[in-house]
Design brief:
Blueprint lengths: L17 H29 L19 E5 L14 E5 H18 L22 H8 L1
Antiparallel strand pairs: 1-2
Length: about 140
């Protein structure tokens, strides 16, 4: 009796054609990359090369660090006028997605705490005396 190796379908037990799966994934990635290249090129023509959050300015030398953020988080919503896009540096873009993930977590109940314990509130402000420091240095 011959034995077959490799992954099997969880319900049917039939062998999974991994080559076909690999091709589907490769095709999806290629389509996604092509779509992204299209709207990125369009966004770079529509908007100044400035991060919409931190106002960092970009040139051709560092333009790879400027990304297109979809305001409504739907990467398939790419209107030609760019109304769902904003240019963000890679750091601010990561921050926007982290905030979105935290928002989703809060809707789902967020991180669980032991009953009767209060959430920790951070009160430290690293920029509290920034104006005073700038006066001293200036």
């Amino acid at each position: 009796m011959a034995t077959t190796h490799g992954p099997r379908h969880g319900k049917t037990g039939k062998p999974i054609d991994t080559a076909k799966l690999d091709q589907v994934v490769a095709d999806a990635r290629k389509a996604s990359d092509e779509r992204a290249a299209g709207y990125r090129d369009q966004a770079l023509k529509l908007y100044d090369w400035v991060c919409g959050r931190c106002a960092r300015t970009f040139t051709r030398e560092n333009l790879r660090e400027l990304t297109v953020h979809h305001k409504n988080m739907n990467h398939d919503n790419n209107p030609p006028d760019g109304s769902n896009w904003e240019l963000l540096c890679v750091y601010c873009h990561d921050n926007e997605h982290q905030k979105y993930e935290e928002h989703l977590a809060s809707l789902a109940g967020g991180p669980r705490r032991a009953a009767g314990t209060a959430a920790t509130v951070t009160t430290f402000n690293p920029f509290a005396d920034l104006a005073e420091r700038l006066k001293k240095d200036g």
